[in-house]
Design goal:
This protein is α/β, with parallel strands linked by helices. The chain is 39% helix and 20% strand. The strands form 2 sheets. Strands 5-6-7-4-3-8-9-11-10 form a 9-stranded mixed sheet, with helices on both faces. The structure holds S-adenosylmethionine (SAM). The site of S-adenosylmethionine (SAM) has 23 residues, from helix 8.
Length: 327
């Protein structure tokens, strides 16, 4: 259990910033005085020298910016650890050959609950928005962790999963029965599968279509599901719960997406659907609400004010919807 003092400790805060890929931190002179040589060593041990980050390194570009900034702060009041300079030089030499790197999302305050995701830092890569984690996925996962009872023993399907942060976090931290992540893009599906293998190392891969990994009664999997292709609807796929994060953004897919939601509601009238959105364009979002109503689907807005277990941007315009079939 992390105490309030530990939470406010500048070293712990720096470690969290490094894990979550945030280089917009600031340090005041009092904080800097606390980060002496030994504590700089402790920072290096907990981050770049840790087993996790050695196996799954963060972006070298991010490391470069972070370490340069940290060294600049420290130089004003401290002797800077040699290895901090050495790590900066290393980050400056290495370039990520492809666009991918690893991000480590800390759930709660202690470093023993981490979701590692292979992803890019770019919004669009190879024609898809699905190769990075979006804010709505952080928000949906945080909401799920605050409402774990809704997921208890459920068969969950995620639509438009992207690299899989929401589905993987929920499958790992809520007591679900099964969770299948889906998307329409081959490279996204390949990345989801890798991310499942990273976060569920003890699960065994089954020879199956869709790709499934099991551990006793628990299952996690990945499948192709394009909302425009009705033949992707597996007759046997009848989830208890459907989730989606940041899938309401393209006006041309609102109708096919609502069609998918309606199909699942008709197959299972007790189904619960939760969609988290960042509202970038009011017209597109309202278009989604209108399409839902026109397809006999009702919705309820769920209030989200503060992040609890997972950090997300509280200032953005956002919405989590609960969707059901009208009786
Ligand atoms: C903005 S990304 C969100 C990814 C992820 N849910 C997140 O929040 O990090 C939108 C996702 O929807 C997927 N998508 C777009 N059109 C789709 C379609 N017709 N069928 C299935 N998935 C689709 C994309 O491939 C992409 O992964």
């Amino acid at each position: 259990m992390t105490t309030e003092t530990e939470k406010c400790d500048p070293l712990n805060q720096l470690i969290h910033h490094f894990y979550s890929g945030n280089h917009s931190f600031s340090l005041n002179p009092e904080d800097i005085k606390k980060i002496d040589w030994n504590r700089q060593q402790a920072f290096l041990e907990a981050t770049v020298n840790s087993t996790l980050l050695k196996k799954y390194p963060v972006s070298s570009n991010f490391s470069k910016i972070f370490l340069k900034k940290l060294i600049e702060y420290l130089e004003s009041h401290q002797e800077v650890h040699d290895d901090l300079y050495a790590q900066l030089c290393l980050a400056m030499k290495v370039s990520n050959h492809n666009n991918f790197c690893y991000k480590h999302y800390v759930v709660g305050q202690s470093l023993d609950k981490i979701i590692t995701i292979k992803e890019t830092r770019n919004m669009v890569v190879n024609g898809t928005t699905g190769l990075k984690t979006w804010e709505a996925a952080l928000m949906l996962s945080d909401w799920a962790l605050c409402n774990k009872d809704l997921f208890l023993n459920k068969n969950v399907l995620e639509l438009g999963s992207g690299v899989g942060f929401a589905g993987i976090t929920i499958a790992k931290m809520c007591d679900i029965k099964s969770l299948v992540l889906s998307d329409c893009h081959d490279e996204v599906l390949k990345t989801i599968t890798e991310n499942i293998q990273i976060n569920f190392p003890s699960y065994e891969q089954k020879v199956s279509q869709p790709t499934l990994f099991t551990n006793g009664p628990k299952t996690i999997g990945a499948t192709m599901l394009d909302w425009n292709k009705v033949d992707h609807f597996n007759e046997h796929m009848v989830p208890d719960l459907v989730i989606g994060a940041d899938i309401v953004y393209d006006p041309s897919i609102l109708k096919p997406l609502c069609n998918v939601l309606q199909t699942f509601c008709i197959k299972n009238r007790d189904i619960d659907i939760y969609i988290a959105s960042v509202i970038r364009n009011e017209e597109t979002f309202n278009g989604f609400l209108e399409t839902l109503s026109s397809m006999n689907l009702k919705y309820e807005k769920i209030e989200m004010i503060k992040s609890v277990f997972i950090d997300w941007d509280e200032k953005i315009q956002k919405c989590v919807l609960k969707i059901k079939l009208n009786n």
